[in-house]
């Protein structure tokens, strides 16, 4: 990433421009074709002319797809998952790297990514609290007008369900091995992992 | 969906992978893109200016012309581009809408042409961005007001077979329509003036006879004044009753301001008649005479300026209210202060706070009568502050009221000028002269045919056929269509005015957008053709159908038959530029029906077919469906 800073007259730091290194380098790092990268970058640059997405913009973009509910929490988790350098900004490289795993990676890589998403504090374990947070954020995106009516304990029920399925040794946390194992046994999950392969 | 956001949809779908492991049920199958082709550039040729964009950009809004398959109608096979015969400058704004998701209104564009372009491309103007929306709304409002003035002009058109009542009403409302009305107008005006003068002179002391007190003229010549008063009231009563009789909606008339003024003007007299001999109420009777001064308001029917003033005051009600409120606040504050400041001084006139109100008002408006003056130093200080602030408080809302008045007044001036018949005629003459080489117009050929028919010369059919050989295929098809319509409705184009309109529509040039129906006002030959503009009741919300009816050869027909149909998407002043686009399409369909396009306000995933990753939103989708005529 090359960073250009533009300073305006009265000393205020205005636009900071980030530029991705180069198409070829990205080609090597990701599994997208040149054409796909071009399309991705065009869309990215259109919405974020400065070259990076900050969390607010990220949430804003994501919320446009879910008008009925509140997607900010889930967007926040997503942001954390994409922001691999932990600097509060998602550059195009981070963006494309993440997408490459999700869309072009192997099933194991995808599941790894999902695990990383759920593991909020990145300690290698998914606790019930973390899972409840994730689940509530997903349910929040539905909003209040649902059929049947949204109960308050719906996320919690779902979490219990999840832990029952995934937590093999019943120690209250799900490790990456348990997660991978349980997911690979579940046919639905395996199938849905390939659902978006043609998105780009 | 905003354009940039549309580009992020793949990302949003990819991010849905986070839901997969926690889902308990199988996911629905993703929709397949049937003809997934690589993103390609398409060329849009608008009046020669080439715009290029990605196909995906246009696909963002599938409910518009460019985003749907409708644009295939404009595809040019040879040049492999889409050609639109529209304004290239406005198209810039339209295309930018696809690119950025925001619709802007270029200030240099005429509001009507902009609206027409938008409706052509199937974009609803409500999505104009906040940056330009105010300007757009202002311009729109001005245009509406101008159109309302136009409408008022049209009201002057004389309908055939108006009942006596309607004629009378028309005469009352528009004095310049007939001589009788004008006479009536001046007579009533004269009597209003007389009546007011009488009231005034009544109170003037005149001619004191020696050894007696000065008497007013009213007391001296009681009989004369009484007669005068009676005459005026009689005239006013007759006028009121006549207006009441002629009014199309009597209830509404009775509630209108002018009629209330009329009633208040004549009522005191009648009440006085009833109560003259009763000593107790003679005091009240005197008070009633005050109401006679309301007769002066009757002049507002005669004076445009008065009406405008009244209208301005009404439209500035909020500013006036604010003025009043702030003044009241200031008055109370200063009155209180002055009262307490002057409390100490002896023989002070500031006996109470309400008594100080008078001082405050006189001082704030810088009148300064001097009947109440502060004597203490504190009083003088506060008094000076009061007078200084008074100027400020009054000066602030006044410019707003003034500018409102000025705007409305100028609009009325414009309307008056337009109504001036001389200008009308001159302008039409100029329009006629500016047309060159458009002699293939339907009515031009028609006129020859019809004229001869009317004059019972050689048969029109041969002439028409002869003329039709010289016309282009398009024109002749159109003319044939109009002809069929004529035959259907058993009416024909006749009068010069009808010629004018059809001339305008038939020719393939764009003419100035003078509404032809305005021209109907003058030059009525009376015998042949009358024009009637009718607001249509059909599905289109904003179109009007000017019609032309013939009466002389068919004495039994009733009223307007449609002999020409204009579809005007937005307003009555029409440019036939749009007509050009409409007509070929109409010809292709071989029918005069209006095709409607459903345009929905673009909303997030509710309308995108790809978002099957998550269960479809169960709530009502936010889709506003607006029917707009696209062709």
UniProtKB/TrEMBL annotation, chain A:
Any GO CC annotation of this UniProt entry: voltage-gated potassium channel complex
Gene3D superfamilies linked to this entry: EF-hand
Keyword Repeat: yes
Keywords: Calcium, Lipoprotein, Metal-binding, Myristate, Repeat
Highest taxon listed in the record's lineage: Eukaryota
Pfam families: EF-hand_7, EF-hand_8
Entry GO MF terms: calcium ion binding; potassium channel regulator activity
InterPro entries for the chain: EF-hand-dom_pair, EF_Hand_1_Ca_BS, EF_hand_dom, Recoverin
GO BP annotations, alphabetical order: regulation of potassium ion transmembrane transport
Domain EF-hand: 70-105, 106-141, 154-189
Similarity annotation: Belongs to the recoverin family.
Function: May be involved in the calcium-dependent regulation of rhodopsin phosphorylation. Binds three calcium ions.
Protein name in the entry: EF-hand domain-containing protein
Organism per entry: Oncorhynchus tshawytscha
Name of the gene: KCNIP2
From TrEMBL, chain B:
Superkingdom of the source species: Eukaryota
MF terms in GO: A-type (transient outward) potassium channel activity; metal ion binding
Residues that span the membrane, as ranges: 180-201, 221-241, 253-275, 320-341, 353-369, 381-402
Signal sequence, renumbered to the chain: 1-16
Nucleotidyltransferase recorded as keyword: no
CDD domains, alphabetized: BTB_POZ_KCND3
Positions of region (Disordered): 602-623
BTB domain segment(s): 40-139
Keyword Lyase: no
Keywords tagged on the record: Cell membrane, Cell projection, Ion channel, Ion transport, Membrane, Metal-binding, Phosphoprotein, Potassium, Potassium channel, Potassium transport, Signal, Transmembrane, Transmembrane helix, Transport, Voltage-gated channel, Zinc
Record's subcellular location: Cell membrane; Cell projection, Dendrite
Any one Pfam family match given in the protein's UniProt record, by short name: BTB_2
GO annotation terms (biological process): action potential; potassium ion export across plasma membrane; protein homooligomerization
Membrane topology: Multi-pass membrane protein
GO CC terms in record: dendritic spine; neuronal cell body; postsynaptic membrane; voltage-gated potassium channel complex
Catalytic activity, reaction form: K(+)(in) = K(+)(out)
The name this protein goes by in its record: BTB domain-containing protein
Organism, scientific name: Oncorhynchus tshawytscha (Chinook salmon)
Lineage, broadest ranks: Eukaryota, Metazoa, Chordata, Craniata, Vertebrata
